[in-house]
Amino acid sequence: MSVWLGRLCAAVRAAACRGGTVRRAAAAHQAPSPQWLAVCSFSGSSGTTVNYEELKDLLKKDGVVLIDVREQWEIKEYGVIKGSMNIPLGDLVSAFQMTPKDFEEKYKKSLPEKSNILVFSCLAGIRSGKALKVAMSLGYDRAHHYTGGFEDWTKHELPEKQS
């Protein structure tokens, strides 16, 4: 039910933006209604969660983007899941709103498209859950988060070190 509510919340938010409701509320400096916040809070983390085995299967497919939302110092100190890109959680909104050219210059990879499957990872699944909500709010409705995070990954595989 949580996934259903999350998707409903994202769909209503997107429809409201297209219809002008959110724009009018923003122009009037109104906060979202208590009912809207209640529906969205019940949604938990929109999208789906994946475990190690599901992540391994997803990474075999084309168009899957693995995004590690830990801080840069964590990446340097502990390593990464091979093939992932690092966008710290605090930079996620601005990164997804960059032009494709600016994104590629900064992150050395292509800006994910709304049709891509995104998987967020962090250390233990907390920040990746927040990143999932951010991505869903920006229209990435094929987003997931790896609940075990980097800690779980290292129980199965050695991390890749970055210099």
From TrEMBL:
InterPro entries for this protein: Rhodanese-like_dom, Rhodanese-like_dom_sf
Superkingdom, taxonomy of origin: Eukaryota
Signal peptide, first to last residue: none
Rhodanese domain span: 60-162
Protein's recorded name: Rhodanese domain-containing protein
The species this protein was found in: Eleutherodactylus coqui
